[in-house]
Amino acid sequence: MPERRPTHAKRAHAKQMNAKRAYARSKPKQPTRMPKATPPQSSHGQTLITRRHFLYGAVGVGAAAVLAGGGFALYSAAQPSADEESISVLEVPENAVSVLGDDQAAIAEDDLANYVSLVGSFDLPYGALLWNNNDSIAACLLPTEETAKPLAYIALLYLGSGELATVLEEAVGQSEGFDIYDVRASEQGLIWTEANILDGIWRIYTASLNDGVLGSPMLVDEGDSGWETPTLAAVGMNAFWQVLPALGGKKTAEDSLLKRARFGSGSTAEVVYSSTGRMSTPPYASLDGIVITPRTNTSSVNHQLTLLDADSCEVRDKLVLPTSMKPLEAGYGDNGFTFMFDAIYNYGGGIANLGTYTPAQSHGTEDYEGLSWYRFTRTPTAAPSWSNGWFIVKSTYSVCGVDIGSLTYFALPLESGHDDYGDYLATTGSTSTFVTYTNINDTAVDGTKKKLCRVRVWAPIALA
């Protein structure tokens, strides 16, 4: 098997995650300090919000930026059936990839207004987390007061007006020891995760949205520590969640599953895709589709980027990566699939390096051979998006918009007092606006204190 060379930061993180899993398995019945309890976490690029993040004022995305990409080691999965697929693996020569570098022109901050406009700036409670894949609303997970219970509540931010509407004040299972840990929303409905971290149980709920009013919560799935806490997506009338067997757990021989429930259809859930072995990325929501990364049905370890139609769940596009290449995130935009590596490979030609990749031009479905590609070279911490033809990517501190055709890019200005991760990108898919946010806990020279989450909505000019 080709060798994958992780970075020092990744090795340090792997040790940290192993320690956390060992603690979680011990599950003390009477913990002396609740902030030390470790809630379920995703092991593939999406760190779920934790009690420690809220109570100590650490913003969840700051932790995600540092801890993104758990589960670095290549894994051994159950062997596929004898009826193997015939696959065509992506091949990209090194000279077919352009990168962010000296030959790429940066747009001066003084000229920024000619390329992108700030159309909204709103302040939310400190510690807020946001997710968005449309031009209307963002789902918000917000902390309660430091000594309060519940731990968190759910609100919707209306991007046009800045109105923040609370839709769920506490977990449905609050009296049973459950708290809200994750949420996604479309304009039609809400999906969220509740977890009892002491018992190692998670539950998935959905509810329809009608003019901003939340319908009756429906329990659509439930699991224990044999499964990772599912990752979520909401697209149109559809709620999706991805269920993976926990690494080293009692369900390792089970398939990975993508499940779906229709908003307003009761508690009925269906499996819409299964994968032998673990899918490598969380589901990625666009306006009318969802991207997953199942294993191919082959003896080799290949991950297939797969775009499903959100309504029919039929495959609309797919792309197989070289053997043992495991993306941190996978998405879809104007030029087809995007994927991210947080490590360097010693094989793979033009896609062997760390960064975020996307084709440099449009093309036909499943027609990725012979294309030119673009690589954003910064260490990935957030899935990219597209807005009016611009490729929107999270850099080390700023969020950047790239015009791949002209190799021109802008970097959004940072807010004074921003946290260590800078701005964070909340938007996925292709939209006409995109959302960034940063949590600020700062004291000015004159003693003025500022503790809030600054959300900004941006509209770039449309590229020809």
From TrEMBL:
Transmembrane feature ranges: 54-78
Coiled coil: none
Residue span of region Disordered: 1-45
Keywords: Membrane, Transmembrane, Transmembrane helix
InterPro entries xref list: TAT_signal, TAT_signal_bac_arc
Protein name: Twin-arginine translocation signal domain-containing protein
Species: Raoultibacter massiliensis
